[in-house]
Amino acid sequence: MLVVLFTALWLSQLLPAIAARQPLPGQTIFVLDPAFALPLTGLTAWLLWRGSPLGDLLAIPMLMKVAVLGVSVFLGTLYTLAFFEGSFLPSDLALYALMGFGPAALIWPFWHRLKVKGAAQ
Questions:
Q1: Is residue 25 included in any domain, yes or no?
Q2: 69, 92, 98, 113: least surrounded by Cβ within 10 Å?
Q3: Does residue 121 fall inside a structural domain?
Q4: What is the pLDDT of residues 10-49, one digit of tens each?
Q5: Nearest-CA neighbor of 8 among 107, 101, 91?
Q6: What share of the chain is helix, strand, coil (3-state, %, to 5)?
């Protein structure tokens, strides 16, 4: 779900910029996320779905990465609104909050339920 939300978010910003031939601020993020973070997030989800131990290993770092990214976009939007002129859709701000605080809320429950095979219980 997060991969779909982030892909839609990036494409909604990238496609108009490409059509207008205008560079976007923060161009590095637009390279790193679609090239590395989104595919790795999708791979982690797929591995978790299959019950692979590698999925368990990758899940917490990916939740942290996605939470930090979502919260930073959310706070950056609030900062822009507070100090610069600009418009935004309230639904965008709600989406950023969901993408940041949703994964953050999942880190502790997921971590708490991890079990090490062969460990005393």
A1: yes
A2: 113
A3: no
A4: 788 888 888 888 877 666 666 777 778 788 888 998 999 9
A5: 91
A6: 80, 0, 20
How many domains in the chain? 1
- The residue among 43, 97, 47 whose CA lies nearest residue 67 is 97
Extract the tokens encoding 49.
């779905």
Q: Give the long-range contacts of residues 29-37, CB within 8 A, separation 24 or more.
A: 33/6, 33/69, 34/7, 34/10, 37/6, 37/65, 37/66, 37/69
Identify whether 119 is part of a domain. Answer: no
How many Cβ atoms are within 10 Å of 95's Cβ, its own excluded?
A: 18
Say how far apart CA 107 and CA 17 lie, in whole Å.
34
Distance CA 84, CA 99 (A): 23
Query: What is the span of the domain harbouring residue 43?
Result: 2-113
Q: Is the pTM of this model over 0.70?
A: no
Taking Cα atoms as reference points, which of 64, 42, 67 lies closest to residue 55? 42
